Amino acid sequence: MELALRHHGRYETFVHEAMALPPMRTAVVHPCSTETLRSAVELKEQGLIGPVLVGPEHKIRSVADAAGLSLAGIEIEPVEHSHAAADRSVELASTGKVEALMKGSLHSDELLSAVIRSPGLRSGRRMSHVYVMDIPAYDRLLIITDAAINIKPDLDDKRDICQNAIDFLHVLGIAQPRVAVLAAVETVKSKMPATLDAAALTVMAARGQIEGAIVDGPLAFDNAISIEAASAKGIRSPVAGEADILLVPDLEAGNMLAKQLIYFAGADAAGLVLGARVPIILTSRADPAKVRTASAALAKLVAERGRMMWRNEIGNAG
């Protein structure tokens, strides 16, 4: 039987919701390539962000001229190089002058290291990355975490990674996400650390150390996303076949899984860094425009949720 693959436009709802909000003032960190500068301009035109371009002004204007991009009405914060751009952008975020950060043409580590060094942006929870994937063959958005930041997370790290993703889906209106903690097998084995962590995270959720979701593991990938596969193996799980979040064992597993879904299954993958005081838009040069738009829209909704929580805290204090 031929399987018809099609995109379901699952990004559209939250993109429209984000566009209805005022533009999010965003530091675009070292936008010194055509792709990143064009993205900033296009996101401004869509009303998603109010970009503040942080980088060498002469280089930014040179790139804009060569690409035929107008910088009219766009603020430039001049600094000498990419390190200074990262530091200045983080300073703007920590003092509330911007609501989000967006990676330009510098390495992710350079930007994230500056965020980690800033007491004003650390939240007390480990930062992590989410891929928000629209997969034609799956009936809902699927979160894969962490496939970009935490190389070999321990149990405490995975708890934070899990909670970041859960809180994020709450922002998107999913009240009780289902989290599948992935491993190669569905049973706990002492020689397979990923299964031990998965079992521990499941118990942690049952005891309230992870909140707001149904967590189960270890589950293999097929059981997490296919009820038929889980039934064939006799697995009884409230998550199997209906996972909203796939919590992977380590970065290598997550990165390979995400890229296989992108290139073999035709998935779109919007990317965002969570766990800091502001959302961080972390896109790739290979991302199509709709993915960049979705990533900015997601960041905008997270930033709006942060503002609402701050207002509530002020109101309660008063």
What tags apply to this protein structure?
11 helices; alpha/beta; 11 strands; 11-stranded mixed β-sheet; 318 residues; 17% strand; single chain; elongated
Would you give an account of this structure?
There is one protein chain. This protein has 318 residues and is of the alpha/beta class. It is built from eleven helices and eleven strands. It has helices at residues 12-19, 34-45, 57-67, 82-94, 108-117, 155-171, 193-206, 221-225, 227-232, 251-264, 289-317; strands at residues 24-29, 49-55, 75-78, 100-103, 128-134, 142-145, 178-182, 214-219, 245-247, 268-274, 280-281. It has an eleven-stranded mixed sheet with strand order 3-2-1-4-11-10-5-6-9-7-8, sandwiched between helices. Helix 4 packs across helix 5. It is elongated.
Helical segment tally?
Answer: 11
Tell me the number of strands.
11
Task: List the strand order in the largest sheet.
Answer: 3-2-1-4-11-10-5-6-9-7-8
Instruction: Note the beta-strand portion.
Output: 15-25%
Structural class designation? alpha/beta
| Helix fraction bin | 40-55%
> What Rg is obtained from the alpha carbons, in whole angstroms?
20 Å
Instruction: Name the poorly predicted regions.
Output: none
Terminal CA distance reads 63 Å
The 3D shape can be described as elongated
Give me the strand/helix succession.
HEHEHEHEHEEHEHEHHEHEEH
Biggest sheet statistics: 11 strands, mixed
- Mean of residue pLDDT? 92
